[in-house]
Amino acid sequence: MVSELAGTLTTHKIDTEKLRNAFFEPDGKPVAVKFGTSGHRGQLGAGFCALHAKAIAQAVARIHQEQNITGSILVGGDTRLMSRETARLCAEVLAGNGLTVVYPEIPVPTPVFSFEILSGRVCACLNGTASHNPPQDMGLKYNPSHGGPADSALTGKIEKYANEYMAHPEQIKSITLEEARAKGLVRNADIITPYIDALGQRIDFAKIASSALKFAVHPLGGASLAFYKALKEKYQLHNLDIVSTEQDPTFYFIPIDHDGKIRMDPSSKYPMSPLIKYVETGTYDFAGASDPDADRFGCATAKGGLITPNHALCVMADYLIRRHKVPGARAIGRTLGTTSLLDRIAQAHQLELEEVNVGFKYFVPGLRAGKYVLAGEESAGMSVSGWTTEKDGIFAVCLLMEITANEGDIADCYQALTAQYGAPFYTRVDVPTDEQTKARVKALKAADMASTQEVAGEKVLRVRDTDGLKVYLENSWFLVRPSGTENILKIYAETYVNPEHLQELIQAAQHVL
Predict the structure, then answer these.
(1) Does the pLDDT value for residue 411 go beyond 80?
(2) For the domain bounded by 425-512, which CATH number is listed?
(3) Which of 65, 231, 353, 410 has the fewest Cβ atoms nearer than 10 Å?
(4) Which residue of the set 38, 83, 114, 131 is catalytic?
């Protein structure tokens, strides 16, 4: 149900002082550390507090010592209310354990953490962010030496150790930031220049700069601001405007999302409404955005309005293949809930199509091996082999600008693809639920569908149960899976038949529930 306030600006700011106090002195017992697809998240207070940050940092220090991992750890975060404090606490704990820390003075985008690890300048990172979640939320992610999100085995160990320290906080070692700096254990670093220089080797900024088109980017109040500014200056992008430089941890300047919350989601039409208006009025031909930690992308164009992530991924994949932008890559990677139009594009170009569970961590081996011309997910995350092993919203926005400069409006590019491969109808529905139902859905197996031969008038071809339950039909599919961090069930469906058939698939999925 869409809130009547959706798309409007909030009438009041959140109580930052109350949230700050809750971070240091939660009202109630802090919840146990639990990693979702890539980190521990919760609302400031019992859901995420100072003790969570220190316990996770101590767990990471213990693992590095046990496994004799050497090298500095990059510690930082985005522009959220307690991101800086979370990073400071982590730096003090790591230094208290004798580990060296790189602690930048500016907000750090998630892809830049990955870039710095892959460059060899640091060996791992702790990243304070809750992605595009509401301002009241906070989180902490750990990326090991491969630069991508930690896998389940590693996060399980971090959880185990961190919860031990949650129960025995007196075992956490810490020194002040001043002491750590005096001992040479904590230092600053330039994280902008290396990333911007490298991005210039992957994106044709000269083509963008010479275009007669007008481009806009919106950092959505996040960590990408300094990076977009540096890109604009270095590559003389006079036709690119940064339409907002506002940074405020309440994110009050972001229009309210569908459920009445402030959510800095670049794929939602409500937070993106100012950018949609820009292209609708002809002020700009293309408007791009990345969320607060810059791992997700969004864009709107003059002809298409808001472009869905699925559409953008297909256009980017096709462009990267035809332009030979990722030499040696032999596959497209996508998550279970992402459009199957990517399958048809891969087949047409004689590439493999690899379908993985939801979570960018599942792309890490393939990205490291140079396998993917594109690895993407319907929730607006993507990267390519030879770049970052984290999703990169800055890279995606820049690539979409290059495509627009070279080949025209992204909506026209997508329409050309559907004319060639067929036009899919796609949706995702979030159903509120409880932990019991989530557990039941998570336990569903393909065998539970063994007696089902037909769904929504189509033959069942196969069923996958590695992450929820996905049913593949002749011209369509649907997926039911529980969220890893919220009490919702996610239903994804896609068909090449018609919009009415899409609704039949949703009803069939709800019947499975």
Answers:
(1) yes
(2) 3.30.310.50
(3) 65
(4) 131
